[in-house]
Amino acid sequence: MTVNSATARYEGLGKEGKGRVKFASGALDAPYGFGTRFEDEAGTNPEEMIAAAHAACFTMATSFALAKAGHNDGTLEAECKVTLQPSDGGFTVTKSALSLVARVAGLDRAEFERLANEAKAGCPISKLLNCEITLEARLED
After folding, report:
1. Which domain holds residue 13?
2. How far apart are CA 70 and CA 107, in angstroms?
3. pTM of this prediction?
């Protein structure tokens, strides 16, 4: 079993508050708050971190699926866009849109699409999310 952690501290309340989120690994130590979530203030926000986690998890799952299928070299680049919408007086994450560009020698489109869709469904972050998850996958030479 693997356990990872992060901490968040928020000083002040509501829009005026300012927060800081830190990964235990030290890989991230960033400000967050209303301005980073809904305006153009520098920093991060929960949805951006979810998008990063989903893109990373999905890309790794696809990589392992390709390796298991006998492919041994390639490049995968994924982007994830998480949609946050007003809902019932609050907000809800309604969609996680993955896009993938792959360059893998000897891989045909049908196998690529099958493996990418299996990775989308099977990656732990996809399983965690309670929203629509879409995938646009492109195989390049």
Report:
1. 6-38
2. 10
3. 0.95
